[in-house]
Transcriptional regulator
Amino acid sequence: MEKALWYLFTATRGGVNRVRVVRALAERPKNANRLAEELDIAYTTARHHLDMLCDHDVVERSNEDYAALFFLTDQFERNRDEFERIAKHVETDG
């Protein structure tokens, strides 16, 4: 997962926003609409970042179709220290 984290947050556009998404979901699970409002980004942008994070097992979606909640995965939680190192790098270089 370490390589996936570096890719998601440093090698692609949007890494700063993906860090913000993860930090927001660490506070509590949220749906895409709430996340977009909280981070002041477009709903489609929030969905794009959530989809990328889901594809790389950082985030998982509840089974609901409408207003599905997004959670951090157990796999991500096991790699939280690596994420924090990467996030510090991203937030500094911003």
